[in-house]
Q: What sequence folds into this?
């Protein structure tokens, strides 16, 4: 539980969006999303991206690392007891994403039950969007 509290404290003090930088790729930017399972913080830097997420019901933390092409992130995710490949499909305005992923025990089967919405300015602990409950912390 301590890891979750530290992650949430860190994320709560981060900007939703950082200033853009130059270059031919996507802007250098940080985003804080709320998902069905907890907060997700991701940083984009040109064509690379890395992030951390919390699975609040399991008291677990995880990370993602990979490459960005347009609005599609492809990489791998890791938790303490599992890992796999992941693809995040971001909306054109970057306000939400839907994900598909594999798990270590069944790497050929792609699952898709994870999505996120940008954290609202008023930073509620949770909110509902299209009949899905999103948790921010």
A:
């Amino acid at each position: 539980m301590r890891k979750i509290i530290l992650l949430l404290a860190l994320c709560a003090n981060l900007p939703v969006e950082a200033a853009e930088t130059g270059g031919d790729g996507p802007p250098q930017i940080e985003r804080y999303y709320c998902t069905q399972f907890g907060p997700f913080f991701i940083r984009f830097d040109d064509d690379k991206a890395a992030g951390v997420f919390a699975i609040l019901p399991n008291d677990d933390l995880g990370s993602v690392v990979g490459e960005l092409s347009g609005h599609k992130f492809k990489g791998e995710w890791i938790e303490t007891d599992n890992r796999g490949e992941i693809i995040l499909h971001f909306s054109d305005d970057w306000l939400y994403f839907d994900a598909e992923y594999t798990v270590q025990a069944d790497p050929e089967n792609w699952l898709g039950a994870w999505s996120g919405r940008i954290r609202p300015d008023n930073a509620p602990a949770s909110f509902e969007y299209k009949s899905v409950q999103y948790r921010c912390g």
